[in-house]
TrEMBL record:
Keyword annotations of the record: Hydrolase
Name under which the protein is recorded: M20 family metallo-hydrolase
Species in which this protein is naturally found: Ornithinimicrobium faecis
UniProt record similarity statement: Belongs to the peptidase M20 family.
Signal sequence, start to end: none
UniProt keyword Cell cycle present: no
Lineage, highest ranks first: Bacteria, Bacillati, Actinomycetota, Actinomycetes, Micrococcales
Residue ranges of the TM segments: none
InterPro entries in the cross-refs: Amidase_Cbmase, Bact_exopeptidase_dim_dom, Peptidase_M20
């Protein structure tokens, strides 16, 4: 591979693919919605598999719905280089999040074919199932199945109507009972590289064309269950009442205050519910859900400890009894330095100076980094907008990202 070799993607194919996927959306939802395991998601993945086959890959769909295409390398016993992302969206989402990485990964295979290059390592192209999560509260479904971290408890998790994650997977034509068989072996994988839009404003602010990620945020989710006392709203004095919603209000502001004090940390409340919708009753219980994110595991632990302490303070202020339950903690994923250096070199070979940055959004790379050295290549998001219909990245930026992805695969093929 040389600097001068033409490894640019075929822009027309990228544009056509993007247009096709943009048409496979649920018109009953706002934005560009192709929600995981929906009819549109199934149709999108069928199209992705077909494009993989046309690119010369052999395809299979595993028990959770991951679409996997293989291009055998000249040394079939060498571990595979994996490229991929996800083609599902959040409800009301955009047309670039995940999609750019799936189109880009297929285009890597197409570019290699055009250039007459057969890599030493096999190339594995993946469209991970349901990265964005579901009302059952499980994100990164496909990559977690591949990493072996999708538990039976999570498959049994239900939404408010009693539909479980296993039901969703079955409804899309897959086999939740066979999820154990989706697991990949670390020994079979040499590297994981994912192209993605930044979903934030940093690259645009810095004037950066190509980003190479240093690490991906860790996430801790919580449920704060608050017990107060059901009383008459008119006859219970303000100094005697035990109001769980007042405790919850303190909890919401505590999330904001704690997260704002900690560098790159962020904290968000999802939902606040109470036992009574009436204004003439002090409700007996309330429930608050939320999450903290941090680039450091120690930072995440610190946020947890501070929130636990704040809940106690709020209890003493409002005469309530709170329980904080922490959900599955995704540790921050550190991208592999050697592989990231190859991505920086690949960017330079394509004529771009790579900008190193932290990702406050989570990705399938978090799960993959437990299996193989992993890195991510970012392209800018206009105004930093994402998970909304306005999400936009210029096609020229997408093409730049795909060329850097292709070159990173070839650098990795030579170096690993
Ligand atoms: Zn994404």
């Amino acid at each position: 591979m040389t600097r001068s070799q033409n490894l640019a993607p075929e822009g027309d194919w990228v544009q056509e693919g993007w247009t096709h996927l943009s048409g496979l959306v649920d018109t009953d939802l706002p934005g560009w919605s192709r929600v995981g395991f929906s009819e549109q998601d199934v149709a999108g993945r069928d199209w992705v598999a077909q494009q993989m086959r046309q690119a010369g890959l052999t395809t299979r769909v595993d028990a959770v719905g991951n679409v996997i295409g293989m291009l055998e390398g000249t040394n079939p016993s060498a571990p595979a280089i994996v490229v991929g992302s996800h083609s599902d969206t959040v409800p009301g989402g955009g047309r670039f999040d995940g999609i750019v990485g799936v189109l880009g990964a297929i285009e890597v295979a197409r570019t290699l074919r055009r250039a007459g290059i057969r890599p030493t390592h096999s190339l594995m192209v993946v469209d991970f199932a349901n990265e964005e999560g579901n009302p059952q509260g499980v994100k990164l479904v496909g990559s977690r199945a591949a990493a072996g971290t999708l538990s039976a408890t999570e498959l049994a998790a239900a939404d408010s109507e009693g539909t479980t994650l296993a039901d969703l997977i079955t409804g899309a034509g897959h086999q939740p009972d066979a999820v154990a068989g989706c697991r990949w072996k670390a020994d079979d994988l040499a590297a994981y590289v994912e192209l993605h839009i930044e979903q934030g404003p940093v690259m645009e602010e810095q004037g950066a064309e190509i980003g190479v990620v240093t690490r991906v945020c860790g996430i801790s989710t919580f449920v704060l269950d608050i017990e107060g006392r059901r009383d008459h709203a008119g006859t219970t004095s303000m100094t005697k009442r035990s109001d769980p919603l007042c405790c919850a209000a303190d909890g919401i502001l505590a999330v904001q205050r704690i997260a704002a004090a900690g560098g790159d940390s962020v904290g968000t409340v999802g939902e606040l519910t109470s036992a009574s919708p009436l204004t003439n009753v002090i409700p007996e219980t309330a429930r608050l859900t939320g999450e903290f994110r941090s680039p450091e595991l120690a930072g995440l632990k610190q946020l947890q400890a501070e929130f636990d302490a704040e809940a106690k303070v709020a209890d003493s202020r409002h005469r309530t009894r709170s329980t904080v339950t922490w959900g599955h903690t995704d540790a921050p994923a550190i991208m592999d330095e050697q592989l990231s250096a190859l991505a920086v070199r690949a960017a330079s070979a394509a004529g771009h100076e790579a900008f190193r940055l932290y990702s406050g959004a989570t990705h399938d790379s978090v799960e993959m980094s437990a299996l193989a050295p992993s890195t991510m290549i970012f392209v800018p998001s206009r105004d930093g907008r994402s998970h909304c219909p306005e999400e936009w990245t210029d096609l020229a930026d997408v093409e730049r990202g795909i060329e850097v992805l292709t070159r990173t695969v070839l650098e990795a093929d030579a170096a690993l």
